[in-house]
Amino acid sequence: MTLIIVLLCIAALVVMISVFKVSAFLSFLVISVAAGLMLGIPPAQISHSVEKGIGDTLGSLVIILCLGAMLGKLLAESGAAQNLASSMMGVFGTKYIQWAMVVTGFVIGIPLYYGIGFVLMVPLIFSIVYQYKMPAIYIGLPMLAALSVTHGFLPPHPSPSALVVQFNANMGITLLYGIAIAIPAIVVAGPLFSRTLKGIEAHPLEVFMPAQSSGSKIPGTASSFFTALLPVLLLMLTAVYPFLYNHRLPFQNIVALVGQPSIVMMLALMYATWSLGMRCGKSIKQVMTIYADAVKDIGMIVLIIGSSGALKQVLTDSGASMQIAGLLQHVNLPPLLLAWLMAAVIRACVGSATVAGLTTAGIILPLMQQTHTDPNLMVLAVGAGSLMFSHVNDAGFWMFKEYFNISVKDTVKSWSVMEALVATMGLAGVLVINQIIK
Questions:
Q1: pLDDT in the model for residue 213
Q2: Is the pLDDT of residue 380 over 90?
Q3: Band of the pLDDT at 30, cuts 50, 70, 90?
Q4: I need a labelling partner for 37 at 20 to 30 A (CA). Which of 155, 170, 189, 391 fits?
Q5: For residues 217 and 181, which has the higher predicted lDDT (pLDDT)?
Q6: Closest CA to 321 of 273, 295, 277, 360
Q7: Are the CB atoms for 73 and 207 separated by under 8 Å?
Q8: What is the pLDDT of residue 243?
Q9: What's the structural domain count of the chain?
Q10: Chain-wide mean pLDDT for the chain?
């Protein structure tokens, strides 16, 4: 019964948004309350679940989303985005630009959490789209496929790292297996698949549209690249810093502070205010106006992403994810395939890759130990399954839809299918490696 209720709620959400054109934010709130009532959460606690879901989702994202939009808007307004696009096209050309996006997404995705990588790379994607009149999905999906794969497969990202600990796997071996599986998954779900989507008309957020020349000095190419990539560089440095010393680290507390994504974004924006703003002839007032406009442009996106977390929390608090996993627990399948399937079903029902992965881990662990299944491959099987078919109950779905400004139908055809391909290719890679090492 729980599975039927979850599926009905998801169907109702799709109908409200797609057929009746109700705001996604309001639709999520209504369906979250209805789901809570049908799943047996005490009425007095439903609002707490909704508020907690919104708070947990936005708590880690709202600062990054807003500061990222400000940085992206300044990159566009200052002319730095055009410099980035021109340089990349000059090096790779139109023919290989997709592969440039893939490599960039993979390198950026290893140290960065998915949401941060998305926000930081969107201005680069859209600057190429606007300047060279290229299809947005064709350019953007390969990079986002790379970001998604690194987020789901590779330590040190939160979910695979937590799975490594739970399964008592080896972090290094898991990473090596993950990279071997990630490369073909990215190629199929990114450059190859996106070539079939050129017919989708996307109208990316105008917040990142390059501005007409205003008489201000255009920043140089080196300055443009350094400013745009400064958040990535800071996060990489703080991640590597602990490995440089074998004893107690000097400035450990400062590095720990600077290593927080929100602090990194704040420092990067402060630098950009000087390098792309005041240094190029803009007044502080002009720069602040740019920042205010950027936040206005993404206000509804922030609300939609937050409200998607409300439904996820209601499903989690009701125990729906555990009940769905319990239904699958006794299915007669090989452990790696069963773990993938369990994570995939929970992901499709609940919407959270992290919830899907960790819920599956707790249930599949005894079976893994009994059958002596390779724990490193189990990490990757669960991680791949947890990416399966992102749709309307996933915050990532709405980030893609709203930033690229396409319909729900086209988001399913592009984003959701891309995630399904990543998950399927991940499972195929796990099964192949399992046969090789037997």
A1: 52
A2: yes
A3: very high
A4: 391
A5: 181
A6: 360
A7: yes
A8: 66
A9: 1
A10: 87
pLDDT reported for residue 193: 96
Q: How many CA atoms lie within 13 A of 253 on its CB side?
A: 0
pLDDT over 60 at 80, yes or no: yes
Indicate whether 375 belongs to any domain: no
Asked if the bond preceding 191 is cis, omega within 30° of 0, the reply is no
**Is residue 363 one of the residues assigned to a domain?**
no
Domain extent at residue 135: 62-300
Domain membership of residue 28 (yes or no) is no
Is residue 381, in this structure, part of any structural domain at all? no
**Minimum mean pLDDT range among 29-33, 263-267, 320-324, 406-410:** 320-324
Please answer whether residues 363 and 389 qualify as being in contact, where contact means their C-beta atoms are separated by less than 8 angstroms.
no
The number of CA neighbours under 13 Å toward the Cβ of 254 is: 3
